[in-house]
Structure formats: C-alpha cells, structure tokens
Amino acid sequence: MKKHLNEQEVLERVAGQRDAASDEHVRACPECRNEITRLNDALGGFRTTAREWAETVRREVAVRPPVRHRGFGWQGLRLAGVLAVLLVCLGVLLIRHEGPRAVEMSSTADDAVLERVDAAMSRSVPSAMEPLSQLVPTQRKELALKEKVEGAN
Amino acid sequence: MGGGLVMDGPEGRFSIGRRLTTCPTGLHLRSVATEDFEALVAAYRPKVFRFAMASLRDADAAQTVTQDCFLKAFQAWGRFRRECSLDTWLMTIAVNLVRDSVRNRRLQFWKRTSQEAEPAEIVERTLAGCGPTPEAQIILNEQVKAVWAAAAVLPERQRTVFLLRFVEEMELLEIAAATGMKEGTVKAHLFQALRTVRQRVGAIR
After folding, report:
1. Do the beta carbons of residue A75 and residue B111 sit within 8 Å?
2. Complex prediction ipTM
3. Which three-class secondary structure state does DSSP give residue B53?
4. Closest CB to A49 among B101, B123, B163
C-alpha cells in the first residue's frame, strides 16, 4: 500500500477531485480517511453555519430599509473636520517652532547685505573703473618720482 | 410607462428601477419579462445575499450588494444570451459587486460595519447536537470556528473561490465562469485557501 496521501492529494479529495488510486488508499488507510473526514466535517459545518447565518440575517435585514454605503456621510465629515483641526494645529506649532530661527536667519542675511553695501560705498572708484585705476600712478609712486626728479636736479 | 420593477412579498417591498410603472388605478403594471424577472429574484435572492454576507460579513453591505446585483441584472436582462446558466450569470454580477464593495470599504476604513452576530455564536447554535459526544461536539465547533477564522484572513480571490466552492457548492468550471478566471487559476486559489484552512483546522485535535 502507498505510504500516505500527500497534502495535494488530500486537498484534491476535499475539493471534490477523486481518482481510483486515492479512493482505494483512503478505504484501506484509517489515518488518511480520518484526516479527510475531519476536513470534510469542518467544511460541512462551515457551509451549514454560513447558510443559517445568512438566512437569519436576511430575515432580520429584510424588515428594515437598506443603508447605502456611499459618499462620505457624517462619519466622513467628522473625520475630515478632525483632520483639518489637526492640520491647523500642526501648522501653528511649526510656525512657532520655526519663528525665532527664521528671524535670526533673516537678520544675518540683512547684516551681510549691509556689509556688501558698506564695502561698495567705501570704494574709492567704482568697480567698473578698477582696471583703469591700475594704470594711474598711486600717490607713493608720484612721491618717489618727484624725489627722483629733485635728486637729479 | 417606466421600466421599473416592484416586488411586494413577505420580506417587505423590494424595488428595482428608478421610475415605477403605475396605471391610474394605482396598480403596478408588469410586463411578461418583468414577471419572469420577479421569479428570478425570488429564486436567487437568498443565494446572492448569502454569498455577499459570507464575503463581507456586513448585513447592510450584503443587502446593498444584493439590491445592486438584481438592479444590474434587470438592466442587462434583455442582453442576457443564456450562454451560461442564469445562476452563473448572477453570481458573476455578485462577485464583481462584492469585489467593488471590498475595495470601497478599504477606502472608507473609518466606517463602522453592521455585523449582526458573530459567526462563532451561530456555530454553537446551529451545530448543537451534531457531535456524537460532548467532546466531539466541542472539537467540531472549534474546527468550524477555525474555518470561519481562516476564511476571514484569506486574500480576496481565494476567499471568493473558497466560498463559491464550499458554501454555494459550485463546480470549478462554474466558478471559473463566474469569476472570469481560468480553471487552473481557480484550482490554484482553491488549494491555497484549503491549505490555510487545513493548517487552522489541523491545530485543533
């Protein structure tokens, strides 16, 4: 005799697919027979209770109008309201948390701009004319030139 | 004259269609096709509701799916060519609606579902006296609860195939037609689902 039905063979029998070989084995093997009977009983009980349950509920539901599960409804609106309030609270908290740092960052940026303005204002010549200023002799060069001329005289 | 369908029965009024067909006397006029359709609703409504309920475990959602299923069927009634059985055709619509409902519920996660009763309570009530001994009864109850628990955690496709096979007792080819999958794919999903169920049931001895 074959050892035992494997899982697939057991499931096939439970699903209603039988063949002569497994029929013969089940007749001769009490273990496999018990396993299949156990599963069939559980599934049969499930079928009976599912039918009974549906019938009971159907009779109860039939006397009241159906509720349609469509749209948001009050529950959805309530949830949307709670979410909106939470979002607003979160926004306020974020703004409060980010506030001092933002002011600090903006004052640093202002300082940097002012420094650049000061630097621009304190230039002797505009930046566009700086290359030309290289060609013009500086005061020290002029003095050295004067001394040279006087010494020669 | 509108194309509506109104059904009055012991379970209350069930209406399909946006406009009601009324004659001056206030009676609803029904065509022959509509009469056929009413019979169809009466015959298949429990099955569609049962599948929706087992899939969604929410009475209101299952009721909505059932109503929508017959509304869609009514709208497409003239185009139904009887290439597959009526049963399979209706289950195809139901499977698609359940899938949509599952997806919508994922998006509307904040919504409360209206569960009527836990399957666990139903198991004990329904299976009372099925076991030969009290011990066997307890084990059977636990095993059936394990199947319910396993079905709840199965991926959507596996659960659909599993429920169609073991609750609706549909053949693999019918499941393939209803779900739009190939037979081999149906088998693969079914065996995977059974593997999960077997693991859970196997843990109870």
Report:
1. yes
2. 0.78
3. helix
4. B123
Is A79 part of the contact surface with chain B (CB cutoff 8 Å)? yes
Closest residue of chain B to A62, computed from CA coordinates: B11
Neighbours of B88 (CB within 10 A): 17
Per-residue pLDDT tens digits for B51-100? 999 999 888 889 999 999 999 998 887 777 777 788 898 999 999 999 99
A71 touches chain B (CB under 8 A): no
Of residues B34 and A116, which shows the higher confidence score?
A116
Which residues from chain A sit within 8 angstroms of residue B62, using beta carbons?
A: 54, 57, 61
B141-175 tens-digit pLDDT:
999 999 999 998 999 999 999 999 999 999 999 99
* Sequence ranges of the domains in chain A: 7-63
**Cα–Cα separations (whole angstroms), residue B105 to A61, A104, B59, B71, B157:** 20, 49, 14, 21, 16
Q: Single out the residue of A46, A50, A41 nearest to residue B147, CA to CA.
A: A46
Tell me which of B92 and A136 has the higher pLDDT: B92
Is residue A14 a contact partner of residue B194, using CB atoms and an 8 Å limit? yes
- Answer whether B73 touches A (CB < 8 Å): no
Q: Which of A45, A46, A26, A28 is nearest to A36 (CA)?
A: A26
State the pTM of this model: 0.65
Instruction: Say yes or no: A48 contacts chain B, CB-CB below 8 A.
Output: yes
